[in-house]
Amino acid sequence: xxxxxxxxxxxxxxxxxxxxxxxxxxxxxxxxxxxxxxxxxxxxxxxxxxxxxxxxxxxxxxxxxxxxxxxxxxxxxxxxxxxxxxxxxxxxxxxxxxxxxxxxxxxxxxxxxxxxxxxxxxxxxxxxxxxxxxxxxxxxxxxxxxxxxxxxxxxxxxxxxxxxxxxxxxxxxxxxxxxxxxxxxxxxxxxxxxxxxxxxxxxxxxxxxxxxxxxxxxxxxxxxxxxxxxxxxxxxxxxxxxxxxxxxxxxxxxxxxxxxxxxxxxxxxxxxxxxxxxxxxxxxxxxxxxxxxxxxxxxxxxxxxxxxxxxxxxxxxxxxxxxxxxxxxxxxxxxxxxxxxxxxxxxxxxxxxxxxxxxxxxxxxxxxxxxxxxxxxxxxxxxxxxxxxxxxxxxxxxxxxxxxxxxxxxxxxxxxxxxxxxxxxxxxxxxxxxxxxxxxxxxxxxxxxxxxxxxxxxxxxxxxxxxxxxxxxxxxxxxxxxxxxxxxxxxxxxxxxxxxxxxxxxxxxxxxxxxxxxxxxxxxxxxxxxxxxxxxxxxxxxxxxxxxxx
Length: 550
Ligand code: ATP
Ligand code: MG
Hints:
Elements: H1 14-20, H2 31-42, E1 47-53, E2 58-62, H3 63-80, E3 87-91, H4 97-108, E4 111-114, H5 121-130, E5 135-139, H6 142-151, E6 160-164, E7 172-173, H7 174-180, E8 199-204, E9 214-218, H8 221-232, E10 240-243, H9 251-255, H10 258-262, E11 266-271, H11 277-287, E12 291-294, H12 296-302, E13 317-320, H13 327-337, E14 342-346, E15 352-355, E16 366-370, E17 375-379, E18 392-397, E19 409-410, H14 414-420, E20 421-422, E21 425-434, E22 440-445, E23 450-452, E24 455-457, H15 459-467, E25 472-482, E26 486-495, H16 503-516, E27 525-528, H17 542-549
Parallel strand pairs: 1-11, 3-4, 3-5, 5-6, 6-7, 10-11, 10-12, 12-13, 13-14, 26-27
Antiparallel strand pairs: 1-2, 8-9, 9-19, 14-15, 15-16, 16-22, 17-18, 18-21, 20-21, 21-22, 23-24, 25-26
The structure holds adenosine-5'-triphosphate and magnesium ion (MG).
Magnesium ion (MG) is lined by residues 205, 347.
C-alpha cells in the first residue's frame, strides 16, 4: 500500500530520510475507498482491528468486514439524510462501531467530529451550534443520552440522533439499522465525490491552555500520518499496534486508523473506562502487542508496577507524546524493560513534527528532530531564528510547502487562525531550544514560562527535577505574581503514598531542586494537593493553578 504514496520507503539514516522522503498525494484521495476498500479487495482476510473490553468481550475485524460494515453504515447515514459536507458528531468512546461510522462518513464525504463522552449538555450545545451539527451518534449510556437530550431544544440544526449499544424512543438504533442496511454502497461521483480540499474531520484540541479549539483537516490528512505510524511508531506490516487514546481526541487518529493501516499493521483497541496499569499491562502481554504509543502519564504509572511480572516479549517498540517526558521516567522504563522510549512532538493541528526516529539514538528528555514534512525553526520574540542553545518558540515555516497533514485552520475562526499562522509562519505556542546535534528540548508552553528577576524559567525542567525525588508522584510548576521579582516559582505537588506534607519536606524538596538544577529555579512556594487539575485527556492544566493563585 505504501508504494502508492511514497517515492521511497526504506531509508538508511535520519539524514537520508529527511532528504529523500516524499509523499505523493493523488487527486481526490479518500482513505475509506483508496486504502480500506482497496486492501479489502486484494486481501479481504487481512486483520484490521483486534478489540476487547474490560468485561472480556472480544471481536476482530478484517478489512473485508470493515468494507462491508462501513458500506452498510454509509447507507444508513444516507437514509437519515446525511450527505456530503454535513457535520456529524461521534461520541463513541472506544466502541468498535466508531470505525464503521468514521469510515462511512468518509465515504459519504460528511464531516466527522469525534468528541468525548465527558461533554456536558452545555458543551454539546456549544459544539452543535459552532459546527451546525446535523446528527449525533453516541454510546447508549444514560449519562451521555441525558446530555444529548438536554442539548436538543437549543440545537436547531440537529436532525437525528442514534445510539450504539442501546435503543430508545426517538433515537435510531445504530446497530439494528446497520444490520438491516444494504451492503452495497457505490463511491459517489461528480459533485458528490470528495476532493482533497474538502473538510474530512474536525477535532477539538485538548483545552490545556483555554477553551478547546476546533481544528479543520481535509481529505489528505491521513497521508500525513504515514510518518506517524511507519517512521515514528515504527509499526510493522502484520504487527499489532496499540495507541492509548479515547476516540474523542486527535491522538486516536494518530494511532488507531490511518497510518497504521497504510503501513499494514492491525490496530488494537482496549475499550475501558478506568485506567488500571496492571490491566493494561496484562492486555499488552495477552494479545502480543508489538508496538505501543501512550502519553507520559501512562508510563509514569507503569514504572510503579513490577514490570518483570508481565510477559512483554512481543513488545518491540514504544513511543511517547502529548506532554513532556521526564528523563526519570525514560530511565526507569528502560531499566525495567530494555526498551528505549522514542519521544515525538505534535499537536491536534499537526502530525508528528519532531520525533526520535528509528535511526536515532534517543536523548532522554528530548523530543527528537524535525520530521521531513515540516520545516521547523525556533524563533525569538522578534521572529529571528535562535542560536543553538537559545530558547524560543517552535514555529513551522510554510512558505515553500504546506506539510501534508497540517490543518487548514480553526473552523469558522479566521481571526484565531491568522493569529497563530501568518506570513508563512505557524506559531505552535511551545517553547524549546536546540542542541548541537539538532535535537529539540521542550521548555514549556509559551504561556507557562516564568519570568523571575530577569531569569526565564521553563516549568518542565523544574518539574523533572522534582520528580526525581521519591516523595513526588506528580507536580506542576507555575508562576505566582510577586512585587519584587515580578514572578516567583511555585510547585504544586502530589505526594507518593508514604509521604505527608510538612515544612521539613518543603525544605527538602527545595534543596533537592537547588542541587539538581540551577539554584535560582527552585520553588519558593510549595503547595501539597491531592490531585492536579487536568484536562479530560489527562494533561496538567497549569492555567487553572495560576488563576486560583491570582
Ligand atoms: P489546547 O490547545 O486546547 O490548549 P493542547 O495544546 O494540549 O490543548 P493537543 O493538540 O492535544 O492540545 O496537544 C498539543 C500540545 O501537547 C503541544 O502543543 C505541546 O504543548 C504538547 N506536547 C505534545 N507532545 C509533546 C512532547 N513530546 N513534549 C512536550 N509537550 C508536548
Ligand atoms: Mg494547543
